[in-house]
From TrEMBL:
One of its GO terms (biological process) is tetrahydrofolate interconversion. It comes from Methyloligella halotolerans. Pathway: One-carbon metabolism; tetrahydrofolate interconversion. The keyword Electron transport does not apply. Catalyzes the oxidation of 5,10-methylenetetrahydrofolate to 5,10-methenyltetrahydrofolate and then the hydrolysis of 5,10-methenyltetrahydrofolate to 10-formyltetrahydrofolate. Keywords: Amino-acid biosynthesis, Histidine biosynthesis, Hydrolase, Methionine biosynthesis, Multifunctional enzyme, NADP, One-carbon metabolism, Oxidoreductase, Purine biosynthesis. This is Bifunctional protein FolD. GO terms for molecular function: methenyltetrahydrofolate cyclohydrolase activity; methylenetetrahydrofolate dehydrogenase (NADP+) activity. Pfam families: THF_DHG_CYH (PF00763), THF_DHG_CYH_C (PF02882). NADP(+) binds at G170, A171, S172, I195, I236. InterPro entries: Aminoacid_DH-like_N_sf, NAD(P)-bd_dom_sf, THF_DH/CycHdrlase, THF_DH/CycHdrlase_cat_dom, THF_DH/CycHdrlase_CS, THF_DH/CycHdrlase_NAD-bd_dom. The gene is folD. Belongs to the tetrahydrofolate dehydrogenase/cyclohydrolase family. Residues 10-125 form the Tetrahydrofolate dehydrogenase/cyclohydrolase catalytic domain.
Length: 303
């Protein structure tokens, strides 16, 4: 007789709320010491409905954590030069500690020069090539928010990563690729599947840890999942009836997995929380540099 269990659901909202509490305490401490608040600049181009929702969530989360935010909203036909000029200004502004450019951008704007104009010290999304390079060697200041959020969810749920088979479905620059690097850094054996992968199930069935980030509803169904696997669903798909679903068929995967994240309420809140974490970190680093400068100014002249 086989006894079957349904998966325990990882509550991303609860884990995110706990982390945000700690971040708020760090903000209060910094404000008391520095006399200024961490400040995040958010650039949004066009009126993509999902981007409006996500930016709204980020701004509200900043408010709740005591972080100031400034929004720069451009029409969809703004020139690439204008966006880059704004990013450069914000990069040089001493009272801005984090800059994010909400993605996707309209097609006529090339991503690389926009992201390249963000000061690496303010790159709270971790998308600048310098920070991407840091991630490759396992030493980055600003880890990208969604995969970092996934790692913290796994840690909070007590999932052992070292030595496990991890399969990442989706190879985007902002989730799949950095996710694979982070899992590899923690000594998982990592496979990446993508749009051209043939017979996806032959990979997913081997996964102890399965990360879904393809943006395709019901891509993975119960029989494709190893019994007892940990499944993290990063997919966000808006269905015609307005319902939000992930990349897995929740009901059938729940019967196979040991742990499963829901959509909504799983990875999404962690993405926003990791943005706050990177912004607070950036502001603390700014304060340390400022303080170091003040100490140097106060030093006696060498005789
Ligand atoms: N500059 C960036 N752009 C984008 C990123 C990013 O990390 N940086 N990631 C995604 C979207 N994203 C953040 O911007 C994001 C996705 C999901 C959520 C979220 O809170 N989801 C909720 C449901 C929200 C809803 O009702 O639609 C959940 O899953 O519970 C926040 C942010 C692309 N662009």
């Amino acid at each position: 007789m086989t006894v079957q269990h349904t998966a325990e659901i990882i509550d991303g909202n609860a884990i995110a709320a706990k982390i945000r509490g700690g971040l708020k305490a760090r903000v209060d401490k910094l404000v008391a010491a520095a006399g200024w608040r961490p400040t995040l600049a958010v650039i949004r181009v066009g009126e993509d409905p999902a981007s409006i929702v996500y930016v709204g969530r980020k701004v509200r989360a900043c408010e709740e954590a005591g972080i100031d935010s400034r929004q720069y909203v451009f029409p969809a036909d703004v020139s690439q030069e204008e966006v880059i000029a704004t990013v450069r200004e914000l990069s040089a502004a001493p009272d801005v500690h984090g800059i994010l450019v909400q993605l996707p951008l309209p097609k006529h704007i090339a991503l690389a020069p926009v992201l390249g104009a963000i000061s690496v010290e303010k790159d709270v999304d971790g998308f600048h090539l310098y920070n991407v390079g840091g991630l490759v060697i396992g030493d980055t200041v600003f880890p990208p928010c969604t995969p970092h959020g996934v790692m913290l969810l796994l840690d909070a749920a007590g999932v052992e990563i070292s030595g496990k088979n991890a399969v990442v479905v989706g190879a985007s620059n902002i989730v799949g690729k950095p996710m694979a690097l982070m899992l590899m850094q923690r000594e998982a054996t990592v496979s990446i599947c993508h749009i051209k992968t043939r017979d996806l199930a032959q990979y997913t069935i081997l996964a102890d840890i399965l990360i879904l980030a393809a943006g395709s509803p019901k891509l993975v169904v119960g029989p494709m999942v190893k019994r007892g696997a940990v499944v993290v669903d990063v997919g966000i798909n808006r269905m015609p009836d307005g319902k939000l679903v992930g990349d897995c068929d929740f009901e059938t995967v729940k019967e196979r997995a040991s742990l499963l994240t829901p959509v909504p309420g799983g990875v999404g809140p962690m993405t926003v929380t990791m943005l706050l974490a990177n912004t607070v970190k950036s502001a603390e680093r700014h304060f340390q540099r400022e303080k170091g400068q003040a100490e140097r100014i106060g030093e006696p002249e060498p005789v």
